[in-house]
Amino acid sequence: MSDRQPPSSRAEPTELPAPLASPKRFGVAVRPPHYAWNGEHFVSDRLVAVDRASVAGLPGRIEVVIEGDFVGVVADSLDAAQNAARRLRLEWRAPSHAGQGDHDQVPLETGARSRELAAGHGEAASAHCHDYGWPSRLRWGDAPGWVVADCSDQRLMLWGETITPEALIHDLMTLTGLPAERIELYGTTPARVSGLGRHCGDDAAVDAAVMSRQLACSVAVWLDATYTRDVHALGQAQRITLSADLAESGDIADYRYHQAHASGDIAAVGLWLCGRPPIRRTEASGTPPFAPYAFSNVQLATRRDDHGAGRHSESLAEIQQAFARESFLDEVAHESGQDPLALRLRHLDDVRGVELITSVSQRARWGEALSSAASTSPDRLRGRGFAYSQLPDRHQRIPEGVRSAWIADVEVNRITGDVTLTRLVVGQDAGPEVDTDRLQQTLQARVLGSARPLLGRDPAFDEWGDGSKDDKNVDPTPGGVLVTRTDMPTKESADAEATASLLQPLDDVNLAPGVAVIANALFDATGVRFRQPPFTAGRVRQALHDQTDSLQEETPGRPTKRPGRRWLKAAALTAVAGTAVMAWPWKGAITPINRPAANLYSAETIERGRLVAAAGDCAACHTAEGGQENAGGRAFDTPFGTLYSTNLTPDEETGIGRWSYAAFERAMRHGISRDGKHLYPAFPYTAFAKISDADMQALYAYLMAQPAVSAETPANALSFPFNFRPLMAGWNALYHDPNPFEPDPGQSDLYNRGAYLAEGLGHCSACHSPRNAMGAEQRGEHSLAGAMVDGWEAPPLNRLSRSPIPWSETSLYDYLRHGASSLHGVASGPMAPVVAGLGELPEYDVRALAHYVAVQMDAPAGDSETVRADAAVRIATAQSGPAGMEEGERLFEGACASCHMENGTPSFTSAQTSLALNTNLHSQHPDNVIQSILGGVHADHVPGLGNMPGFADSFSDSQVVTLTAYLRARFAPDQAPWRNIESRVTTIRQHNNSPSPHP
User: Fold this and answer.
1) Is 315 exposed, middle or buried (0-12, 13-18, 19+ CB in 10 A)?
2) Facing residues of 717 across strands?
3) What is the pLDDT of residues 189-239, one digit of tens each?
């Protein structure tokens, strides 16, 4: 341990400086197409050319910051900066040599002794040999928020969240050349210093500092899950290889430890791109890592450099070494059939350590079998792990150091991947008395990534939310005033929050065993060895599904079998066989089961299933008007006849209560009912097939936990030959792809998440894509091109959109999240329940969906001043009605104007968006306008907005025709008059007045 203190990372208590509290400029960093840390060097594409003219025509003041290969775009709002970053055309060149970038490499001075030890270690063939890794970034951050830098007057002030202030200050010193005393960090840093490594708050901080330094003004950067790309690019910071042989007695012999990389701390991405890499001197360490155990024939090789030397670097190295050592010993014990705790005691000569481990094991009742979670819930696994550490004191005296023994129990949800630390017993023989309850919460916050009951989430296409702590309450503002979840705190309040934090009193506790004890408990629970943290839900879930991660199951040195050309034949045979099976018209029934108990699955799994059901909008289609939720019976008119939705409740006679999961999954992925009958694609199994296994299982658990409702489904009324279900086998062979969703590696995590929701669960194309003569969705340029569904028009969600004001990603988010957009109006008709369902989802997921649709539309990030000015002109033009349409004007004034026009009279039901901006009035079809006049607009999902009554009972067909034509002429004067209004009014009224199959 070192008694050297880090540079001052906190300013004196004072109000937050004005440049940080109210920045006027907002920046976005544009990363190269390819960049990565390869273990020793930073490799990236080189910037060749910047086309500043590509953003010159955008509204507002746009500035492009270039330093080396760093590119930043700065504007007057975050939306404007994001939009400019998308439009900016850049030319990049790939690195000239494989594995090496054109950047000036980090100056390295590596001692010969390190190379010799590494070579000697590589030649050893041991019975037990495993690699353990440590990530450069644990995660993108704790929560979305602003990072603001002001670099001026030979001083740098920075607001942001960091868990490694010492390392961040070192990076900022390298970037600016300023001494530590000229750099001031503001934020809630002290409460989150963990010693486990960095997150991308540091990368965002350096991005903001680079742009502020060039422009000499404060610049704000928005930190969110988009920085996950930096997590992936920086990859692994450290790899430690351990190997050992066992004597016949079971004792460990020939124990070897080798640290592959010089540093476990990787500088911020912006620093590398600017061509300002940290200067390092790397050599074989004169002081090998301390191991508390007595093994025979020990070889310890480690490489250290002076980058970031200090308390943070030493603490990180200690935790990395303890993780690798304690995980390895656990593996050796399991592989040799020994008790992990007994194996350690056999190699521990330290009396105090033996007494401590014995005491902790007795308190934890080590050796007693854990109760099986699977007996009460099939989605739960339980396990127990042990880890031990001894660290020298700050004067490097080993006998006087701290000994710490940990035993942890974990519970793993095999469906969601969530890990819960259920019990922790800790013993420590020096330093403060350990508060186990507080330490358990510290572990959950620091090791597993979150203090919430659902732990450790990272953005992924099938993960709910972005892993942040308060996903629903964080929103970047589009304007120039910086606002986070609450008002920007003062420095004084930030210090007070840090002092009051639960984690603050635990700084002197030896946390070195904390990561290993969780990894060992996870192995005991799952049988999967996690050889690199963090233990996020996605990693756990994927590992349980597919144990191919090289840091989970790979044994170094073992040859990997390479598949030969036989895979071509196998793939061809599989494709032929799969097509034949799909085209076979008669399917077998799946044996019914007894209805699962409502409490069979855990609350976490059921909650995930609730989100899946909300995203899939199950209730909207499976609930008849006036009927009970998901009991089925809703009628759908198709060109082939009338179909009725089925009962999704767990009723054993009329619902899915006797369906096994296998039967449920087959219906969702292949469109085959439990009894073997083909389902019709009006039930969008063509989209639901893309649902991940975890979401599918969670949805099944949720539906089985809901109240059972006895409700028979009315018989379908389809014309021949469409009423002959076996014909669907041929349809499936032609048009159905049952494969789950695969993310596009060329797209961002945000895009892939949006694509998964839109193409799978949300089944947007089921309504918004036209269909061919066989009822199959049209693809290619016709995808999301708009369609007529059940008497309503689902407008295009691509570049064919006829909205009078172009959609932006911000407007799409407002519409999907809040049910209304100020430039487009309120969600109504069939979209109203869809938006209500989306309101249940985490904020990140709705943003992902908006981002995906915006890409299909080629929409900008935000609404520019030019767009808003155009909207104002349209509204002003519509203030007076067209000549020669007096009857329509009388109807409008009598029934509509009080809410839809500003007349100075107070009203509690005023429409918030002018009809001049309404997409329906600019469509090629009058159907949605007619539906709204007849049935009204019901926006209960939008707080503060009144409902519009329907006029089906008070207006005749001719009056509806007159009013519809008038609305088109007045509020969409640039569009041609509709020609088929009379026939559409008659058809829609007849459709809406059709009797319900239910009494």
Assistant:
1) buried
2) 642
3) 444 455 678 889 999 999 999 999 999 999 999 999 899 999 999 999 989
